[in-house]
Amino acid sequence: MSERFLRNEMILGKAAADKLAASHVCVFGLGGVGSYAVEALARSGVGELTLIDQDVYSESNINRQLGALTSTVGQSKAQVLARRVLDINPGCTVHPILGRYDRNNGESFFGPYDYIVDAIDLVACKVDLICRAVERQIPILSALGTGNKLNPSLLQIADLSKTYGCPLARVMRRELGRKGIKHLKVVFSPEEPAPTLQLEAPPPGRRSVPASVPWVPSVAGLMLGGAVVMDLAEGLLPTNSTDTERSDAT
Q1: Mean pLDDT over all residues of the chain?
Q2: Which of helix, strand or coil describes residue 50?
Q3: pTM (2 d.p.)
Q4: So what's the pLDDT on residue 246?
Q5: So what's the pLDDT on residue 199?
Q6: How far apart are CA 225 and CA 216, in angstroms?
Q7: 245 or 94, which is more confident?
Q8: Residue 245's pLDDT band (boundaries 50, 70, 90)?
Q9: Which are the contacts of 213, defined by CB distance < 8 A and separation ≥ 6?
Q10: What is the C-alpha separation between 241 and 127, in angstroms, rounded?
Q11: Which residues fall within 8 angstroms of residue 41, CB to CB, at 6 or more apart?
């Protein structure tokens, strides 16, 4: 028996581990948040992953994006993370897709997914993706803003209707409400944005570039991945244990 995911099975149980191995999760957006969501999913033994991002790594990504290294600058984010996933779990089926999701080509990105992680940073694209997922009854978990924030302990998983203090959440509530969508599972932070210096020219269509530290988007991404795993394993976790002691050692 392989020990690769044994520690997961010890707490999640065999039924949940088998369910994860048979599940297909798609991650849209592989930046600071999405890359760590991929890491959690891969290390949890999810058996099939579709990884979607149009970008290549730049030097400014190195401070916070999991696949960004000096050696990977200029390489596709999707392909770099696909290689990493296979190094973690050679038995995983990985589909790296180099592309940008938007409302005009959104249909082409959909497949037989058991769950979708939305780590896209553009509102129009997020809204369209969520609407398509809801139409297909595919569970989706969305990341809201982590830029300009410093305190990862304030990150929460909640329904969009219960969010507060997050400007992106406010915009998403309004835009999704116009589509008749009132509820959505999200990761958000109510932390007030920290003051920042604009040291990088914004891309076309953007007014500014959000600042980011290594520890906030990474925690958000791990929370996303963990929440997806727990949702997929719902109803399959052991209800009791015959063990009288449990070690906290990792």
Answers
A1: 94
A2: strand
A3: 0.93
A4: 46
A5: 84
A6: 14
A7: 94
A8: very low
A9: 63, 64, 150
A10: 42
A11: 25, 27, 49, 117, 225, 228, 229
Q: How far is CA 36 from the centre of its chain?
A: 7
Q: What confidence category does residue 130 fall into, taking pLDDT thresholds of 50, 70 and 90? A: very high
Query: What's the CA gap between 144 and 127, in Å, rounded?
Result: 12
Residue-wise pLDDT tens digits, 61-84: 999 999 999 999 999 999 999 999
- Write out the two tokens for 225: 């991945």
- Average of pLDDT values for 159-184? 97
Say how far apart CA 31 and CA 87 lie, in whole Å: 19
- Is residue 236 within 8 A of residue 19, CB to CB? The reply is yes
Length of the chain: 250
User: Could you write out the three-class secondary structure of 108-154?
Assistant: HHCCCCCEEEECCCCHHHHHHHHHHHHHCCCCEEEECCCCCCCCHHH
Hey, what's the torsion of the CAs at 78, 72, 213, 140, to 10 degrees? 10
Strand partners, 187: 143, 157
Q: For residues 114 and 139, what is the distance between their CA atoms, to the nearest angstrom?
A: 7
Q: Are 56 and 143 in contact (CB under 8 A)?
A: no
Nearest to 85 by CA among 77, 73, 93: 93
